[in-house]
Design brief:
Blueprint: H1 5-16, E1 21-28, E2 32-39, H2 40-56, E3 63-67, H3 72-84, E4 87-91, H4 98-111, E5 115-118, H5 120-132, E6 140-143, E7 165-170, E8 180-184, H6 185-199, E9 206-209, H7 216-229, E10 232-236, H8 238-243, H9 246-255, E11 259-262, H10 264-273, H11 276-279, E12 289-292, H12 299-308, E13 319-324, E14 331-334, E15 343-347, H13 348-351, E16 367-368, E17 371-372, E18 390-394, E19 398-399, E20 403-407, E21 421-426, H14 438-445, E22 457-466, E23 469-475, E24 479-482, E25 485-488, H15 489-497, E26 503-510, E27 538-539, E28 549-555, H16 565-580, E29 585-590, H17 605-613, E30 621-623, H18 626-635
Helix pairs in contact: 2-3, 6-7, 10-12, 15-16
């Protein structure tokens, strides 16, 4: 029985040596790809050598910032921190954008960082930034590629306990400053076993992916779980994937991948960008698990991908929708392996009253041959409302051993099956809290029900349980409350997207003319699935209590050819107003990249709202209510 993560992974390393490895596929000039391999034994040797250097600096139990591009050097640095009992803080490399540097600086201040680990290519840039920021005398950079390795034989294992901190997973700060989730060795052991049991993982598992290493799905799912299982993992960078999405499928084919994991938008990108010609030669039949999580899972995506890639070996039962977050290390729930997704139709109006009422004929949830048993896709979008007031939801599966409860966020009373409330979680995967924030940790990680049961983690997410399946309906802070009805921002966004093929992603939020527009509002989820427990959403009102919603909608101007943009804005406005019976809707059409996002791709509705109100968003066309136009002018 292991009590720390280092002992477990080193036993696996000794068992498998370099027969198991991490393989990084890098893009070379001329659209060529290079295979870079790091065997487990070599990783161990390099990590031990760097651990000795870190120990010599007296960094035990201190936080160290890891700023690396995607690749093998990050893996070595992260495990060196684990070996030295140094608290690793993975973060995205900042660029010249002041906002990105600003986030990096906030992490440095919050975690009291004195040392940054990086590679040769980025050392000079980071040094220059530290000097310009006035931090050079306090924070130093260590190029982990430049110096000669220390003798790995000089490493003496520190004392590890289950509660020893392993790393800080900073949330991406979509609603507030980033917060460092404290993940300990006991959390890693518990969640490693949760994932292993759900995916039925073994040393024969072969993973393929592209999710960034600073994202909890990437760090835990792509780099820590392979060492927990003692299995191979093949990965590329998110940028390389976005440039050429078919590479992901080519790697699954070439390396006979058995598991892959990505947010829903990754699968949609593959659907849009992989051509019929590129399908030739692909073989996805080796896959047994295809995880979809970290953001709302769309039934339309699951169905379309199963149909499109069915001829090259994709089977619907491969799908494993899942739910998790940094605050629970990673996994909370997932569909049992081989069962495929459970998709059900619910009465949309009842859901606005927090009651889940299944619609007749919609109980046959699992995908079968690319189509829903129980009916075809209604309205063309999951999470939205189609004909007859139906909202289609994809189950996030079932817990493995963690305890999941649905609780009224106001009264803290547990809600019965089929009633919507806040998702609370308890178990060994729940992290220790937020670094340096004892009061916020107590509120979020120490919640108790009205009868004193706990402590539970308040996820800030809303959902319900039906027939043992967890259905996530949205976030507390994304609620738009209209005439006593709870409407989720992503439902509005899905309806807008379904209005025309030119519609891409959009951000929906409310504006209340009766309050300071910089206060309240709907906000994007915190971090990478993180908990930001709050109370209630935003009651939208304008012009003497008139409810109002704004949608900033990115569009493809090429796909809009033949439809005047002003007409397109009005079309989207009418679709959303009719679907949700909203008295006032405003639509702004904008170019790709307008909607604000976190470094890991999560939508930031609050920041998009602020950008709209301050005139930072360049509209290609719009259809605004008069009151909104006036309120916007007041901010510019």
């Amino acid at each position: 029985m292991y009590t720390d993560f280092v002992s477990l992974i080193r036993d696996n390393i000794h068992t498998h040596g370099d027969d198991r490895s991490f393989t990084f596929i890098s893009e070379e000039p001329g659209r060529k790809y290079k295979e870079n391999v790091l065997g487990f034994a070599e990783l161990d040797r390099k990590a031990l050598a760097l651990a000795c250097r870190l120990e010599a600096r007296g960094l035990r139990d201190r936080a160290v910032l890891l700023l690396y591009p995607e690749g093998l050097e990050f893996i070595t640095a992260f495990f060196a921190c684990l070996y030295a009992r140094v608290i690793a803080v993975p973060a995205p490399l900042p660029d010249l954008d002041a906002g990105r540097f600003g986030r990096t600086r906030r992490i440095i201040e919050d975690a009291d960082i004195a040392l940054i680990l990086t590679d040769t290519a980025h050392r000079a840039t980071l040094d220059a930034w530290l000097r310009a920021a006035g931090l050079r005398n306090r924070v130093h950079c260590l190029d982990t590629q430049a110096a000669k390795d220390a003798d790995p034989g000089g490493w003496t294992p520190p004392e590890f306990r289950p509660e020893t901190l392993a790393f800080l997973q900073y949330t991406s700060g979509s609603t507030s400053d980033p917060k460092g989730v404290m993940v300990c060795h006991g959390n890693l052991l518990c969640n490693g076993e949760e994932i292993k049991r759900r995916i039925e993982g073994s040393p024969d598992t072969v993973g393929v992916g592209w999710v960034p290493h600073y994202h909890d799905m990437g760090l835990v799912g792509q780099f820590l779980e392979p060492l927990y299982l003692g299995c191979r993992y093949v990965f590329t960078s998110p940028i390389t994937f976005i440039k050429r999405p078919v590479l992901w499928l080519e790697l699954i084919t070439r390396y006979r991948g058995t598991i892959t994991v990505a947010p829903n938008f990754g699968y949609e990108l593959a659907l849009r960008r992989v051509t019929d010609r590129q399908l030739e030669g692909l073989d996805l039949s080796s896959l047994t698990v295809v995880k979809n999580g970290a953001e709302p899972v769309r039934a339309a995506t699951l169905e379309a991908l199963a149909e499109r890639f069915g001829p090259v070996g994709f089977r619907p039962e491969m799908w494993m929708p899942c739910y998790g977050m940094a605050e629970t290390t990673l996994l909370v729930t997932g569909a049992p392996i081989g069962s495929g997704p459970v998709i059900r139709d619910f009465d949309a109006e009842a859901l606005t009253k927090d009651v889940a009422v299944p619609r007749n004929g919609a109980d046959g949830g699992a995908l079968n041959g690319g189509a829903l048993t129980g009916g075809a896709l209604t309205g063309g979008a999951a999470g939205g409302r189609g004909r007859g007031g139906v909202r289609r939801l994809v189950s996030s599966g079932r817990p493995v051993t963690l305890e999941v409860r649905i609780v009224d966020p106001e009264t803290r009373a547990e809600r019965p099956e089929g009633r919507v409330g806040e998702i609370w979680v308890r178990g060994g995967s729940v992290a220790r809290g937020y670094w340096g924030s004892p009061e916020e940790s107590r509120r979020t990680f120490g919640a108790r029900t009205n009868n004193g049961e706990g402590p539970y983690l308040r996820t800030g997410d809303l959902g319900f349980v039906l027939d043992g399946e967890l259905f996530v309906t949205g976030r507390i802070k994304d609620l738009i409350i209209v005439n006593g009805r709870n409407i989720h921002a992503h439902d509005i966004e899905e309806a807008a997207r379904a209005a025309h093929p030119a519609a891409l992603v959009g951000a929906a939020f409310s504006i209340d003319g009766a309050i300071d527009p910089d206060v309240g509002g709907t906000a994007g989820g915190t971090g990478d699935g993180g908990a930001d427990a709050g109370s209630g959403g935003t009651a939208a009102g304008l012009d003497g209590g008139r409810e109002h919603v704004v949608i900033v909608q990115e569009i493809s101007t090429r796909a809009a050819t033949g439809t005047p943009l002003q007409e397109l804005a009005s079309l989207i406005k009418a679709r959303v107003a009719r679907t949700f019976e909203l008295p006032a809707v405003s639509v702004v059409l904008a170019a790709r990249g307008t909607v604000r996002r976190t470094t890991s791709g999560k939508m930031q509705r609050r920041l998009t709202r602020e950008a709209f109100l301050t005139g930072e968003i360049a509209a290609l066309a719009d259809d605004l209510e008069p009151g909104v136009s006036g309120l916007r002018r007041a901010h510019v």
